[in-house]
Design goal:
Helices cover about 70% and strands about 5% of the residues. It is built from 11 helices and 7 strands. The chain has helices at about 5-70, 80-95, 100-125, 130-140, 145-220, 235-325, 330-370, 380-390, 395-400, 415-430, 495-505, and strands at about 380, 405, 410-415, 440-445, 455-460, 505-515, 515-525.
Length: about 550
Amino acid sequence: MKLFTKGLLLIALPAGFQLLGLLFVFKVQADAADAADKSTLSKQVLTAANRVEIPILTIQADIRRAAIVNDPTMGNDPALWHDVEDRAATLVDLVAHNPPQAEHARKITADIEAFRAWSIDIATQIASGSSGSGMALQRIREGSGKQIVDQFLEDMDSFLTEERTLDRERALAAEAARHQQIIVLITAAAVALAASGLAAYLFTRNVADRIETLTANAGRLADNVALAAPVRGSDEIAELDRVLHQSALRLASADRAEAGFRETLEKRADELAAVNEHLRQQTQDNEMFIYSVSHDLRSPLVNLQGFGKELALVVQDIRVDIEGSALPEQQKKSILTLIDRDMRESLRFLQTAVGRAAGIIDALLRLSRAGRVEYRRQQVDVAAITRRVVDAMSGSIREKGVTITVGELPPALGDTTAIEQVIGNLVANAVNYLDPARPGVIEIGSLPAAQDATLQTYYVKDNGLGIPAAYMDKMFRAFQRLHGDVAKGEGIGLALIRRVVERHGGKVWVESEEGKQTTFFVSLPPWTPEAPASPNPTE
C-alpha cells in the first residue's frame, strides 16, 4: 500500500474532528469580534456625545458675557459652530444603525440648530447698539436661550442614558463571547491533540523505524557524511531513500568537479592579476618613455631652430656681400638666385619641419601627462565650465556665424581642470570642422539619466562636415587627422579626451553622418550629495 493511501486513511478521522472544531471556532470568533465591535462603538458614541455637549455649554456662557460686555462676536464664532455641527453629524452617523438612538441624535441636532438661531438673533441685537444690547440682555435673563439649552441637555441625557445601557449590555456580551471563545479554543485544541496523537500512534506502528532511517540518511547527506544502508521496501519511503543515495553519489562527483574548477579559477585569477599588473607597469613605462624621449628631443630641436635662424642671418649677410662685390653681373645674378631660391627655400623647409616636430613632441608630452597627472574628485559645475569655454571662443564663434545652444548640464564628479579640457576640445572641434557651405549650429546638452544609472552622459552635436564610416574606429587614436586642411593641429585632442574620460571611469564615443552632422558623447560619474567629494587624487 502506498503512503498516500495510508495517509488518507490515518488522517481522515482526526481531520474530520479538526474541521468541525475549526468551523465552530470560526463561528465563536466571529461572534466575539461582533460583540467587541459593538462595545467599541458604544464607547465611541459616548465620547462623541460628550464632545457635542461641552461646546454648547461653553457657547451659552460666551453669549451671556457678550451681552454684558457688548461684544457681538463672543459666542458667535462660525468656526466653532461649524465644529459643533460636524460633531453632531458624526454622532448621527455613529448611531444610524440604531433607530431609537438615531431619533435622539436628530433631536439633539435640531436643538443645536435652534440654539444657534437664537444666538445669531442675540448677536444681531447686540450689534445694533446699546438699546439692542439691553434687549438681548433682557432676553437672556428671561431664559429663552436657557430653555433651548435645557431641552438640549434633556435630549442629550436621554441619549446618554440609553447608550450607557447599551454599553453595559454590549460589554457583558463581549465578555461572555470571550469566555466562550476561550472554552471553544481549549476544547478544539484538546480534540486536535487527541486526534493527532491517535494518528501518530497508528502511523508509527507501520513506518516509524523506516522514517527514522530515512531522516538519518537525509542528515548524513546534509553533513556530507556516508549514508547508512538503504531502506527496504517498495513504497515512497524506500524510493526517497534511493534518491538520497543517488544524490550522495552525485554530490560527491560535484564536489570533485568543484574542487577542480576552483583550482582552475584561482589559477586564472592569479594569471589575470599578473597580466593586469604587467599592463599597468607597461603603461606607466610607456608614458615615462614618451615623456623622457619627448623631453630629450626638445633640446636638439631647440638647437636646430637656433642654427636655422643663424643660417638665415648668414645667408642674408652673404647676399649683402655678394651684391656689394665686384663679381661679374652674370655670376653675381647666378649666386643670388641660388641664395634666394635654393638656400632660403631649404632653410624654410628645415624650419617648418622643426616646427612640426616640436608640435608633435608637445603633443606627446601632453598625452603622457594625461596619464600621470593626479586628479582630484570634487563637484564639477559642467554648466559653468561650458559657459567659460563658449565665452573664450566667442571671437571664432562670431567670425564663423555659429549658433550655439546650451541645454541642462547636471554637475559631474571629477577633476575640474581635466573636464574643462574635455569640453573645450569638443567645442573647439565642433567650431573648427563646420561646413562653410551652411550656417553652423552647435548643441551642447545631456541625456536624461536612468533611475539606477552610474554615469551621466553629455553630448556636443554639430552640423559640420561629418565623419566617414570607414574612419570611425580611428577617431580616438593619436595623430589621426581626417580634415587636415581645415584646421591646424597634431591630431592628439581626441586621444587626450579618451584618456582623461577613461581615467574618470567614464566612456567617450561618437556618432556621425558624413556631410550632415557629428555628435560626441561623454559619460562621467554624476555628482550627488552622497558622492565622496574629497581632495584625494583619483586612480
